[in-house]
Amino acid sequence: xxxxxxxxxxxxxxxxxxxxxxxxxxxxxxxxxxxxxxxxxxxxxxxxxxxxxxxxxxxxxxxxxxxxxxxxxxxxxxxxxxxxxxxxxxxxxxxxxxxxxxxxxxxxxxxxxxxxxxxxxxxxxxxxxxxxxxxxxxxxxxxxxxxxxxxxxxxxxxxxxxxxxxxxxxxxxxxxxxxxxxxxxxxxxxxxxxxxxxxxxxxxxxxxxxxxxxxxxxxxxxxxxxxxxxxxxx
Length: 234
Hints:
By secondary structure, this protein is α/β, with parallel strands linked by helices. The chain contains nine helices and twelve strands. The protein has two domains: about 1-120, Response regulator (Rossmann fold); about 125-225, Arc Repressor Mutant, subunit A (Orthogonal Bundle), CATH 1.10.10.10.
């Protein structure tokens, strides 16, 4: 899951980014409206956390431009404007939720998770063969055995399982799991795939993570991958 934080106060922006990254999300940061719109036009976000008082344009303008797109992510407004009129206006203009500053991070995180669940038509429990991933409880089980994953490992596995049977390039994986540009991250993706294989594949007879020659990786039950002519490579 990838989140864009639009906040002009650097201290608050860094606090939000660290907290959301610690919760397992990939996070990009924009300190003004123009940068926010550049990010939104260049990448697909699962959610936007938007401050209203930006130095170059009103946050409502940013919200309007997001809503003018055919497919826009859910938007959580984060603002010191706490009057009822401001909250109603934000929701009427297309925000999905409105949180007033100062706030507790645990509440913000709960609202982020609720909006992401609402925006995800996919089930909260994903399954490929005997591998199950519980998105809400962040648990991974294979053949009744619980598997502990680091946040980035969980993020990659969730992205792959939501797209099971679909080959994913390294670029696609980076853009949805990491919060930095793709340049130089090819080896990191390969390293994390090796880590995932060691935890969810190596001790089991069926190998689920497949290497797709010339593209990247895919997760699929072995018999289906074989039907597509895809071989697992270590």
